[in-house]
Design a protein that fits this description.
By secondary structure, the chain is of the alpha/beta class.
């Protein structure tokens, strides 16, 4: 039997299920099938964002499950995020209320600032505002400390139980921690066997901030996403076929994806693998019945490529984002 807990605990005592469903890049039909399959499989942690434009579809499914009595609201852990076009203190409550309306919920379990870069939009559905030359329209006056104060007010108002950050670097997190009245409970970042972020993990541990790993399998689906945008495909790691991972998977009669998820879980991280295939969604949850040994953990630890392993950079999808003063990946 596994010794790994099925949740991680925030500094405020709130418990986040350690395996959640990632929902980026999913159509309405796909996402409703995926959320239903996930809830049937035992998932209770669903990760979304205003930016994904799928909160309404997810909300329909959640409402069906709650109304039918198949699940209680307090058994669910729902995460959503403030979009970059909302990164001013006066916008936070408006966007959170829009997310709550979409999701048909009274409160969010964890509300994150999606990224530290602010964008200037013409309206609330202008998610990636571009100028005539195809460059993203930056709001260069983003004030992260002021923005965090507005996030804290959402906890005071009971609209969010916990608040946190996504795609922030150590310096940005430290700035917020130093002035915070309500500390960030969680940081969501790219993290997988080839990009293990050890310095950032140690930093968060020191400050009592938990971590959720997005793209925990190295995001094999993102190549298709870049191609669909007509962009050059970065050399994304094929962790699923990695011989070290394959060897360990064979030993436990598990899939390579299950080994990669289990590795991060044993490091104390929550994971949000994204899939719209019910069989994969189910398989990604079958990670509580085996333990990796210290030797396995060491071998997987050696797969880390450092910065070379990073597959996601805001400027890859948002042309010109690297010029923002709060670009978190500056110098990488």
């Amino acid at each position: 039997m596994s010794t790994c807990k099925d949740h991680i605990t925030f500094w405020n005592g709130e418990k986040m299920p350690i395996v959640g469903l990632g929902t980026w890049l999913s159509s309405k039909e796909e996402i409703q099938t995926a959320v239903n399959a996930a809830l049937e499989a035992g998932y209770r942690h669903i990760d979304t964002a205003y930016l994904y434009s799928n909160e309404d579809a997810i909300g329909e499914v959640l409402q069906q499950w709650i109304k039918s009595g198949k699940v209680k609201r307090e058994e669910l852990f729902i995460v959503t995020k403030l979009p970059m076009i909302g990164n001013r203190s006066e916008n936070v409550e408006r966007f959170l209320r829009k997310s709550l309306q979409n999701l048909r919920l009274d409160y969010i379990d964890l509300y994150l600032i999606h990224a530290p870069i602010g964008l200037t939009a013409k309206h609330d559905d202008d998610l990636f505002p571009m100028n005539a030359d195809g460059f993203v329209v930056l709001d260069n006056d983003t004030d992260l400390v002021d923005l965090w104060k507005a996030m804290e007010k959402q906890v005071d108002a009971g609209l969010a139980k916990s608040i946190g950050l996504s795609n922030f670097n150590e310096e940005q997190i430290e700035r917020i921690v130093k002035t915070a009245r309500i500390k960030p409970a969680n940081l969501q970042v790219e993290l997988h066997a080839e990009f293990q972020q050890k310095s950032l993990r140690d930093f968060c541990h020191k400050h009592g901030i938990t971590i959720v790993a997005y793209a925990p399998l190295g995001s094999p689906g993102r190549n298709a996403f870049y191609t669909s945008l007509g962009m050059a495909v970065p050399g994304l790691p094929d962790l699923i076929q990695n011989p070290v991972v394959v060897k360990i998977a064979e030993k436990y009669k598990k899939s390579t994806a299950q080994v990669l998820l289990r590795y991060l879980m044993q490091l104390g991280l929550a994971v949000i693998p994204k899939s719209v295939t019910p069989t994969r969604i189910h398989a990604n949850f079958q990670v509580f019945d085996f333990d990796l040994t210290a030797t396995d953990m060491a071998e997987l630890g050696e797969l880390d490529q450092g910065e070379k392993g990073r597959t996601f950079d805001l400027s890859t999808t948002l042309k010109g984002a690297e010029k923002h003063p709060e670009n978190p990946f500056r110098g990488h």
